């Protein structure tokens, strides 16, 4: 009779190399669920904690549901979490590592450089040119 095989998880020790590290996800690929990341603030591997916030679109959808379904339809977008923004926080240091606005790409947060000068957020479309001087 065949013996059942033990299931190996991604943190099981290997006889030759020790524990196998869990792969982390790049911050640019975060979505609406917790993920395992390399935190740029505390420089540790950690899960993200999700904090969701209602967007203006959530509130507009609630108004639309109120008109279509009646007063009882107002709660639907809030309970079913339609059109919400998503903040990713590191579970080790509680720093916000990314912000996922509803329907837009992820905005990655990075720590300020050691000189103390903040780096502005650059959208995936690239930097915008400076405004032209009108004389």
TrEMBL record:
Residues 1-27, 104-135 are annotated as: Disordered. It comes from the Eukaryota. InterPro entries: LITAF. Residues 126-135 have a biased composition (Pro residues). It holds the Pfam family zf-LITAF-like. Residues 1-11 have a biased composition (Basic and acidic residues). Residues 19-102 form the LITAF domain. This is LITAF domain-containing protein.
């Amino acid at each position: 009779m065949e013996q059942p095989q033990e299931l190996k998880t991604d943190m099981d020790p290997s006889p030759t190399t020790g524990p196998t590290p869990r792969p982390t996800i790049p911050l640019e690929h975060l979505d609406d669920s917790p993920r395992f990341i390399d935190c740029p603030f505390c420089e540790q591997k950690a899960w993200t904690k999700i904090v969701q916030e209602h967007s203006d679109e959530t509130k507009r959808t609630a108004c639309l549901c109120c008109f279509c379904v009646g007063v009882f339809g107002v709660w639907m977008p809030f309970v079913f979490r339609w059109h919400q923004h998503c903040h990713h926080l590191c579970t080790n240091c509680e720093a916000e590592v990314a912000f996922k606005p509803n329907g837009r790409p992820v905005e990655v947060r990075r720590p300020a450089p050691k000189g103390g000068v903040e780096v502005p957020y650059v959208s995936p479309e690239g930097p915008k040119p400076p405004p032209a001087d009108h004389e």
